[in-house]
Structure formats: structure tokens, C-alpha cells
Amino acid sequence: MQVDWKRFSEVIEASNNIILTSHIRPDCDALGSCLGMAGLLESLGKKVRIVCGQEVPESLKFIDPDDRIKCIGKDIVAEEFADADLHIILDTSAWIQLGDMADVIRNSSYKKIIFDHHEGEDDIDAELFKNTTAEAVGRMIVDAAEYLKVEMTPAIAQPVLAALATDTGWFRFGSVNPGTFRAAAKLLEAGAQPAKLYGQLYERETVGRVRLRGTVLARIETELDGRLAHTYIKPDDYEKTGAHPTDTEDLINLALEIEGTVFAVIMVGQVSGGYKMSFRSRCDVAANEVAKAFGGGGHRAAAGAFIESDSFEEVQNQVLTQVREMLAAGIA
Ligand SMILES: [Mn+2]
């Protein structure tokens, strides 16, 4: 599905007071596209407000230095924008992703459009402007700037670069094409700064978290010709490294960077007692099948479980025995 840009321009031209909304659990494409679209529409003289169903997470606040993205029920109530004449929903086509904005949208009478790159949509009473081959809504914003003949400013280009870069895994996903780089070039010509963005996104670790990562990496053991990798965190590691117990997220993925490793396990001692296990699979043995053996669950590729014991040796023995057995049976 492609965007009918002529029709899009007509809809924009006919509107003056526009509300933008994106999905809850917002990412850079959601937030960056809202900010970019707001900038384009304001260049055309429109009044624009961004209202979402959830607050901008702390780690992404840098993307919105002027605090433009408002949270419904907290920063703004629906009555305050009842005078709007157009509502644009970006980067989602699903009710469930709209959070508390879903009811606002259901109960409003002004025109609605969806501006998105996801396939499929719920029964939202909205005109569709979708490009299901677009790498990111951020890419569609760059296209929109061209069709609306709006010159992008640095304040537009920077959040849109965040959208485009993150939704393409920094220009490496299968969706990337020559047009992705042309769009990126336009953003840089307009003043976007990739090095600044990268630093804001990925170079803000605490020393504790980096040290904890080192501890986890140093403890990796491999077995079964390297197909299985496992590591652990003990409850006193947080104090030793200065890390926070929530800093363990994603550490297991480091084990999957080893060539030939198709199954990874991390056993994470909890300050409140017991061990949380995370499993990652890149083979026929599903991570959730392994997790199920310990009363846990999840997905094929990623799953977790909990063991109440505080004896690391006991937990390790129990978990690895099970994983070895399932891998031996499941890998030819
Ligand atoms: Mn997206």
C-alpha cells in the first residue's frame, strides 16, 4: 500500500488545528515522527499539538527538548483539544496501541487519518495513508516534506533521523534500500547530527552496568561444541559492580554474539531471593519449551522462568542438566 500524496496534501490543506498521536510504549519512530510531522505542519501555518497515551520514557526525553509531547490525562485533557479539525495517528493502526487515547479518538467527531507503515489495521474510522514498504514512518515524513514542499529545519531533521535510524537498526535491516540513504542524506543536509543521536541513545550507560556486563561476559562458558552458552549473576554482584538489579536486561543477548552459539542461558540471582532464568534460542529447541520445564514461558526465541532456590550450584545444575538434555535431543 502506498500513500496518495495528492490526497494527503488536500487533507492537510483543509485542516488548521491538528492533533498528532502515536503508540504507547513509544519508540524513536513514534516520537520522532510526531515531532517531525508537527514541524512540517507548523511550517505550513497549522496549529499542532502532540497528545499520546503514555509519557515519553526517561531514556528518550532527549528527543523532545521542548516538551512538546503531552500525555492524555496527565498534561492535557480531551476537552482542551475538542476544537481540533484533524487527528493524525502515526506509526500504529491498532486500538490497543493507543492506550488512553483510544477512547478520545473513538468519541471525537473530527476527521482522522492514519499515517503508518504497518500492515493491517483495526476498524478505526480513519482515512489511510500507509506505505507498508516504508522502513519507518520517519521515512514517510521525509517523503511528506517533499510532497508538501516544506524545507526541513534541524529541529525537524534530528527527531526524524532518530526515527529512521532506529527503525532500520542503524541502516542494516532488510527493509533498507537506496531510498533510505537518500532520505538520511536529506536529513543530514537539513542539519541532523547522527553522532549526537548515537551518543544520546547508546552512550549513556552507568559504570555499574558496564562493569556488570564485564562480569557476565567473563563468566560465559560454552558446551556442546559451542552451541550452548551460559552465564550467571549472583545477588551480591550488584553491590560489587555498583549496578542496579534492573540492569540485567538484555545481557543474555551478549552470549549470542558467539559464532556457533544457538542457545543461551543466564541465571540471575534476585536480591529478594531465588534465580530468574532467561533463555534465548536460535535453533529448533524452543526457548519457551525449556522455560516450561521450570514453570515459566515466553516465546520461541526468548523465554524465562524462576527457581526459588538460593543455592546457585543447585540452580545451575538443575537448569543446565535440563537444557543439555533438550538440546541433545533437539539438535541433530
Ligand atoms: Mn515504526
Q: What would a concise description of this structure say?
A:
This protein has 332 residues and is α/β, with parallel strands linked by helices. It is built from eleven helices and twelve strands. The site of manganese (II) ion (MN) has 6 residues, from loops.
Task: State the name of the first-level CATH class of the largest domain.
Answer: Alpha Beta
Report the strand count: 12
| Rg calculated over all Cα atoms | 23 Å
What general outline do the C-alpha atoms trace? elongated
Number of helices: 11
> Percent of residues in helical segments?
25-40%
Name the CATH architecture of the largest domain.
Alpha-Beta Complex
Defining key terms:
alpha/beta, single chain, 12 strands, 2 domains, binds manganese (II) ion, inorganic pyrophosphatase (n-terminal core), 6-stranded parallel β-sheet, Diaminopimelate Epimerase, Chain A, domain 1, elongated, 332 residues
